[in-house]
């Protein structure tokens, strides 16, 4: 089935759809050997598309849910030779990449796909995909401190969006607590910085949910393919956010 050229480029992970449109208009894209500058062009599986003289990969789209362990890098490769999330998917024909990232010392739910357009949409804060984290923090946050998280705190000079949070348990002997936090943003080290801003640094962090997806049935290092219904729901989620 033929699709608009910019959508095919976005699905191949070249760039977002809007950025792909700019590449087309700049004369950097060719279809079957002919430079294309119009945005209405449609291409199919048999068409040969080049971006800056490099062929794009129109491979079948795949989607996985990975329970990322601590001590694994959320990247396709690491200059220091450390284990990366793509190491779990070497038996697949398609090359998959993480949707966003989890810190090296953070575990939990991470989506993996070769669908560049959906990945870009899910990572954009405008689509407001909720993510729930469970953090082990120093001390026990008071309701007043939690209220600051709910209203938004300033990190790196910018206020965070409203969050949902609650204390799940407290260990008064060890002076630690387990707190859940739900946000839709994805700034660098955001959860850790938010807890630090209220005086309760994170000792351990795990992402439990991503939108409607959770880790049920998986243990650390496990992964599973998303069902077609789950993929449809993810796409519906970003459509609602437009």
Automatic annotation (TrEMBL):
GO terms for cellular component: cytosol. Its EC number is 5.4.99.-. Keywords: Isomerase, RNA-binding. It comes from the Bacteria. One of its GO terms (biological process) is enzyme-directed rRNA pseudouridine synthesis. InterPro entries: PsdUridine_s_RsuA/RluB/E/F_cat, PsdUridine_synth_cat_dom_sf, PsdUridine_synth_RsuA/RluA, PsdUridine_synth_RsuA/RluB/E/F, PsdUridine_synth_RsuA/RluB_CS, RsuA_PseudoU_synthase, S4_RNA-bd, S4_RNA-bd_sf. GO terms for molecular function: RNA binding; rRNA pseudouridine synthase activity. Belongs to the pseudouridine synthase RsuA family. This is Pseudouridine synthase. The lineage of its organism: Bacteria, Bacillati, Bacillota, Bacilli, Lactobacillales.
